[in-house]
Every structure is written in structure tokens, then in C-alpha cells.
Amino acid sequence: MMYCISLFCSFSIGKNAIGTAFSLRNDIPAKAAIFTKDIFEYAHRGAKIMIQNGWMEEPPQMEERRNLI
How many CA atoms lie within 13 A of 38 on its CB side? Predict the structure, then answer.
């Protein structure tokens, strides 16, 4: 569930960027920047929780060639 929330936060930050890029109003980018900051802080706290509990995936590692032989 934590991963899904993190994924949704990433999607919402991207969609906010696209929305402000195509907006013709002057007040929308300022409000969207505040929302994006809040979303980023929420996602960052979630990432810290996942790291502390060991729920964050470890990136792929190279195999040790000497052990393969």
C-alpha cells in the first residue's frame, strides 16, 4: 500500500507539471507549486518510512563472476 501511495504521489507531481505548463492563467502555476511542494513532502515522508522498515526494493546488483564459475 505504501508503494502504491508513493506511485500516486509521483503521478500527481507529473500531472501538476503538465497542467501548469499548458495553463493560460497566471494564478494556477503558483497554486500548483504549493500543492506540488506538499505532495513532495508527503511522498518523502513515506519513502523514509519504507526505507526504515526495509520495504524499499534494493536495486539490481551485478553477479560476482568468480562465484558463477
Answer: 7
